[in-house]
Amino acid sequence: MTATLDLPQLLAAYAIGAFPMADSRDADSIYWVEPRRRAILPLDGFHLSRSLRKTIAGDRFRVTADAAFDRIIALCAEAVENRPDTWINATIEEAFRRLHGLGLAHSIECWDGERLVGGLYGLALGRAFFGESMVSRAADASKVAIAALVARLRVGGFTLLDCQFMTDHLATLGAREIDRRDYMALLGAALSATGSSAAASSSLAGAASAGADFRALDAAAGADGAVPGKVIVQALTQTS
Question: Which residues contact 191 (CB under 8 A, 6 or more apart)?
Answer without folding.
Answer: 15, 125, 126, 127, 128, 197, 198, 201, 210, 211
